[in-house]
Amino acid sequence: MCSTRTAESVCAGHPDKLADQIADQILDDILYDDKAARVAVEVMAAGRRIIVTGEITTDHRPRIRESVRTALARAGYSPLGFLIYVWTRRQSGDISAGVTTSLEARGGDSSAFALQGAGDQGAVYGYATLRPLNASRSSWHIAVETVIVSVQHDAGKDLEALTREVESLVVGPACQTYLPVDEHTEILVNPSGRFVEGGPRASTGLTGRKLMVDTYGGLGSHAGGAFPGKDPSKVDRSAAYMARLIARTIVDAGLAAECARWPSVMRLGRLIRSPSVWTRSAPENTPTRSSPRLPGTCSCYGRRRSSTPSTCAHPATGIWRSTGT
Fold first, then answer.
1. pLDDT band for position 274 (50/70/90)?
2. Residue 259's beta-bridge partner residues?
3. Closest by alpha carbon to 266, among 247, 249, 245, 242?
4. CA-to-CA distance for 58 and 69, rounded, in angstroms?
């Protein structure tokens, strides 16, 4: 059975990723001074303007403009070429109360995991897979069908020379070993033609618009919550990291060669339901082990897709059992 998958990546200078990097630089600099700070910032890069907005609650005075200039320089831009506008405010008192004291804590639960809540709810996904392998009754053949590269260039650059350089210096090194490029691979460099004007001056950048690039390149699902500029109390980020850890742990344990796992709802720090979907079998000779218990999950077995997202089958007995809490 043959299947085709498509994935995307962008460079650090892309306007959307520039906005993401600025947001995370602001976050990092604030957390460096105040580890308990609450931060959720959004950034827009348009023309020669960088606009920062959002909610910041901290005991220290944030150096937002300095953080913006640091991120611009790191991405290869001259900070002197941009005007920086900042409109931020403190976190809402209602949201802050939900984060400071969880629903469980308000109900009398004094355990460590129940002390901090979350100020929002949402779905997050975790995904993990093995590298290509050959094993008993289990093999994968990977061929790269098409590679498309769009890269900014100088006005006088010869496009044929640019194509040769990209093929030899970018595509070849990036695809070797795991993504072999051969004579059947179609390589397209700047298929739209001239690409002299770029960056925020050509296209407005905004935080959170490269969600798939930030996670699994389109190979795994995404619920829509962006990561950049959010401190660990924001479940969009921290719960997605935990879902990734759970999926990776299951794959590393040999229970599945490919696994998508997600806490379907996060509310006030509580995991409402945590189903698993097994999408590809592990080799038949892989030892069967129970996945470790992790916060918000239960121990489960399984190596194949179940009929419903909330169940999976033990590979030896075939008995279906729930993986939800």
1. low
2. 128, 278
3. 242
4. 21
pLDDT of amino acid 49: 97
What's the pLDDT score for residue 218?
78
Q: What angle do CA 149, 153, 159 make, to 5 degrees?
A: 70
> 260: how many CB neighbours lie within 10 A of its CB?
23
Q: Coil, strand, or helix at residue 189? A: strand
For every residue of 74-121, DSSP letters joined together read HTT--GGG-EEEEEEEPPPHHHHHHHHS-HHHHTT--SGGGSS--S-E
The first and second tokens of residue 47, run together, are: 């023309």
Rank 1-5, 82-86, 107-111, 135-139 by mean pLDDT and report only the highest. 82-86
Tokens for 292?
A: 């470790």
With residues binned 3-state (H G I as helix, E B as strand, rest as coil), the percentages for the chain, rounded to 5, are 30, 20, 50
Q: What is the pLDDT of residue 177?
A: 73
The 10 Å CB-count burial string (b at 16+, else e) for 170-180 is ebeeeeeeeee
Report phi then psi at 129, rounded to 5: -150, 160
Higher per-residue pLDDT: 27 or 116 = 27
In sign, the C-alpha dihedral spanning 104, 109, 114, 119 is positive
Give the pLDDT of residue 141: 66
Structure tokens that stand for 145 in this block: 């069908």
Q: How far from 101 is each of 93, 108, 257, 259, 268, CA to CA, in Å? A: 12, 11, 39, 33, 9
Number of Cβ within a 10 Å radius of residue 20: 28
Query: Closest Cα partner for 229 from 214, 219, 216?
Result: 214
Average pLDDT, the chain: 77
Residue type (1 letter), 121: Q
CA distance 82 to 97: 37
Specify the range with the lowest mean pLDDT, choosing from 72-76, 108-112, 198-202, 253-257: 108-112
pLDDT band at 277 (very low <50, low <70, confident <90, very high): low
Which tokens belong to 61? 């005075």
**Tokens for 273?**
């339901």
Q: Give yes or no for residue 150 having a pLDDT over 90.
A: yes
